[in-house]
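Side project, low priority. Logging it here so it doesn't get lost.
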Amino acid sequence: MRLKIIGTGRYLPEKTATNDDMAKLVETSDEWISTRTGIKQRHLVSSPEENTTYMATEAAKRALKNSGLKPEDIDVILVATVSSDYITPSTACMVQRELGAFNAVSFDINAACAGFLYGLNTVDAYFRSGIYKTAIIIGVETLSKIVDWSDRSTCVLFGDGAGAVVAKADETGMLACLQGSDGTHADVLECKARSNNNPYVSTSKDFDYVFMNGQEVFKFAVRKVPECLNQLLEKANLTVNDVDYFLLHQANYRILTSIAKKLNLPMDKFPSNVDQCGNTSAASIPILMDELNQQGVLKEGDLLFLSGFGAGLTWGAALLKW
């Protein structure tokens, strides 16, 4: 048995901030942002109640409705995030409480922008081993709370939101998957946590903001995604022409076009919503997947290539039948 997606859902905050809004905060312009990233706007939380847990729960509710399953049917709730509301408990446990899915084991993973793929791969392993049969996998981020809003190199890139899928163990679905990491380049994209503060070590700084070496991340993504694709195609005994759609982490439209060019493929095989959502890290792929599902773009039997890449450095990829 393997992972098959049977339902999708997403939640995006109603409040949007355009590039012109960003220009009121930092020295930038719509032209500067859009030509370098493809981003036109991003969704941002606008109230204390609209937090990571709330967005994850709303996306999960919509995915459950789309799947036809009930909360009590779920065996696993896995949340991928770097921006949880609490150090502990996990966001997944909070979502479990809000859903009433009390039969589910619940936990978070932190693999940055590759987190959703790590979640898919983890649940697929559970299904193949026969331990569990149903799951909710959520990617959710409130990146606006860890961004330095005076740093134009990062604040214009990121947005908030959540995407979720419901999966069940089936004879079809996940064909092949992989994940990897390279901690030697951990400083390329980072956000430091609270420093130690005890009777022997003291600091006045509670936390830091996101730092990113954009050029290094760009080069990493354009190199790694085709590598992952080739590995999975060989593993599944398929060719690139068998893939109907490439659902990649929505970090930067120039990354997507560079990957498509490297693979010699048309951009209509690379759906994108980065112009409307910005970079939502672990949430970007499930948000895009639900958008395509609700629009009726994805058809039964379509072959999808999914790939996420981000801080760690981490990467994950999957080939699955819709």
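Brief comment: The radius of gyration is 19 Å.
Revisit when time allows.
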